[in-house]
Amino acid sequence: MATITNRTLIFDCWVIPAYVSVSVPSGTRLCTIEIETKRMREISRRLFFVVLLVAPLAFGQPADGQERIRVVATTGMIADAARQIGGNLIGVQALMGPGVDPHAYRQTRTDIAAMAKADLVLWNGLYLEAQLEDFLLDLAEGARVVAVAEAVPQDLLLGSEDYDNRFDPHLWMDPELWSRVVVVVREALIDAHPPGEAVFRTNADAYLAQLQKLASYTDDALSSVPADSRVVVSSHDAFNYFGHAYGFDVVGIQGISTESEAGLRRIAELVDMLVARDIRAVFVETSVSDRNIRALIEGAAARDHRVVVGGELYSDAMGEPGTYEGTYIGMIDHNTTTITAALGGKAPDTGMQGLLN
Ligand SMILES: [Zn+2]
User: How many domains does the chain divide into?
Assistant: First the structure.
């Protein structure tokens, strides 16, 4: 039995003996998890019982037979940083895939099992994963859990327009700022697995050099956008760090969280702004409904001002796994190249390194 904290989470596993006839791979462990978080206790005194079949090697093993440490990350961007640094010494699972909105995401039973088994859980923090926060704070009392964006010095963070005394969580939109998060991920991996330190440092140095190249490309491309056109209008306020780093005005129809609804008055104000500033392109986001953006385009059309969708941006989630856009670098390259082209700047169609579709 592994007791994570006796108060919050109990995790029992048994390897299924050979004489038990079940149709699962040999060595599969039968696990029972009992979870009772503080929040659940407030709502209900019931215990939740989950019986799972946990396949062995779910995180894979390196070729040399060494056991990998198991890392669970909430967002794809954090998972990508961990993969780049950890190489084949770690197995990484991201809880949130393409198109998933982290502001609204709630943990599934499978997620809870993965986090309970993990050697290290990485999350963004700064209230990005608003619905997961209570669970992660509880888990952190007995397990290695790191809020990577919260380790960045506060004087580098932007305030939240939605919440007093909170910061904007979307740090990945500025590659230079995200590099600081990557360093936090490196340190968390070293703490979790000290024998891997040399490998983690070498891999992190190589990745940080690539991020520096990405920052330079982004700076060059966006500098080519005419000054009057430097406005990004999108579904929610994910792009404030981007705007701050590259001198763009950023307008989200919804606030920093996707949880608030945009009212008709907000849409009308933004139509006025599009007309007054002669803005011709707005952007949709892969992880947020485009309903408000469509309302904006229709509102502008009613005023004889033609606005087009300048493209789809990756705001809070990356593209499909296995594609270039499914990596952090591909995500930012895509956004930079799309925004530059739509707003009248100059960028190669296939982006920084010829890999964009
Ligand atoms: Zn967001």
Answer: 2
